Amino acid sequence: YVAGDVNFHDLMEPKIEPYRRLDNLHFLGNTLEQQKYDLFRKSWAIINTSLHEGLPTSFLESFSFGKMVISCLST
Question: Which pLDDT tens digit goes with each residue over 48-68?
């Protein structure tokens, strides 16, 4: 499951489009409340690919559910 949305649709959409056809990859867009909590409960880890977030909210949410975080950056 890929939750969230991209900031630069014109740039990213051509890159994402081929992956929309995969059966085991689901692009959910922005998720709210119950849908997000259900995803956290079912997940074993959260992957955050943002290069621009210092301490992403998704990290804090993930930790609150006792889940691991995989990040593209390390400090």
Answer: 877 777 677 888 889 999 999
Q: Is residue 28 a contact partner of residue 3, using CB atoms and an 8 Å limit?
A: yes
Torsion angle defined by CA atoms of residues 60, 48, 28 and 39, in that order, rounded to the nearest 10 degrees: -40
Instruction: With beta carbons less than 8 A apart as the criterion, state whether 7 and 16 touch.
Output: no
Structure tokens at 68: 């691991």
For residue 60, what are its two tokens?
Answer: 């804090």
Among 73, 23, 18, 71, which residue's Cα sits nearest to residue 45?
A: 71
Closest of 22, 30, 24, 28 to residue 57, by C-alpha: 30
For 44, phi then psi, to 5°, come to -100, -20
Q: pTM to 2 decimals?
A: 0.71
| Tokens 């740039």, residue located | 11
